[in-house]
TrEMBL record:
Pfam families: AMP-binding, AMP-binding_C. PROSITE patterns: AMP_BINDING. This is Malonyl-CoA synthase. Signal peptide: none annotated. It comes from Inhella crocodyli.
Amino acid sequence: MNLYQALSAAWPRSGTAIELADSDLAYTWDDLRQGSALLATLFTDLGLQPGERVMLQTEKSVEALMVWLACLRAGLVLVPLNPAYQKAELAHFLKDAEPRLLVVAPEAFHWASKLAFQHEVDWVFTLGTERQGTLLDRATQLLPRLTDAVLPRADGDAAAILYTSGTTGVSKGALLTHGNLRSNAETLVALWGFTPDDVLVHALPIFHVHGLFVASHCALMSGSRLRWCPRFEPVLVTQQLRGATVFMGVPTLYTRLLGFAGFTREAAASVRLFVSGSAPLQAETFDAFTARTGQVILERYGMSETGMLTSNPLRGERRRASVGPALPGVQLRIAQPDAEGVGGVEVKGPNVFGGYWKRPELSATEFTADGFFRTGDLGRLDADGYLHLVGRAKDLVITGGFNVYPAEVEGHLNALPGVQESAVIGLPHPDFGEAVTALLVPQAGATLDPEALLRTLRGQIAAFKCPKRLLVVAELPRNAMGKVQKKALREQHAGLYA
């Protein structure tokens, strides 16, 4: 079954589907059908063939969600990108994914289109947050011939490529299929008790698993209404929570809600489920949220390559500092556990991707001989199957729910004037969970200006990848093999943001 069919099966024939939190505008279920049909018709008329890629780098909008639905209907593969990515990052994705069509924000067209045509992209359209841009201008000139048509797709057919950090710092594309995404959505809808009576406050970006697949798919597959927030703002979200039933966020959003005096027990009273993921939830946040609202956050665990893997239960113990047991149908094990039961987390199931785009060598090494995916995370299991994550084998920093690979940032830092070498680490942060932090060793005779270096760096890479602090040091600690000891750096500077 095409994933679009599974998502749209529960849609009513009439009624409101999505309310815009910052305006009086609302979209009906038929708007989603017709809008995705128009876009699917356009993509087909342009000659795009099933399996070809559509790259989307725009700010959050309902129309961007419709692009995803249209790609499903036409059998195309969506490549969603963070709109914060800069030229060098986009160039890598264009070269690697080889999209036929690129959709960008109107203000980015002048530079993104040049890059796209250098990489032989056939079509470049714009899409803005106010329903403007050449994509909609072109699509609305057509009659939606594909109003009810959906291209048949098999479980193994590609639906999306999500780029995630690699062991060398070069982003790699996780190829997710219709079957991967459908099975995960079906499981979560049942596990978390979604019904058509639910109202989900959607305040997440839609370029990664959490916002585009977990939140959106749970609502769409159950026929639940969405309250669509263009971005997270504590005041706006608190207003939208009144009368709503579900909210999903990363830990940073919960700390910011708790920092807003208007977020009270009364404001959260109608919500039956608060879900947290994409980064570890600090125990202090978990406890403070319960004290403020009387509700217990449901923490779950997932990643780009697998969708959701584990979840605390809807009914039952939501265990503090645990991401819960494996989802139904998912096999989870701890490889080579030490004396305390800590080892590598490995998983297998219909939600787990089949491999990386154009990277067969990585696909081979990241899976075990019996088909389990090595997540790169370290964890231990309680006797009743609840998983506790204790660290990451891969040197990844998760800040505000976004993944940052230090090697990539170090490459940019080392190229800056006067920098001899750098080390990028993640340090505990009360708001972001982890803060990207860099230690710089200056070249002989050079004097480094951290603020000037940061200004330069912000023009090269996305803001969320830029270090919150640059610390100038005389040298970096190394082991006998000459490798920088990042564990020692993390311990030394653990209280920097306290």
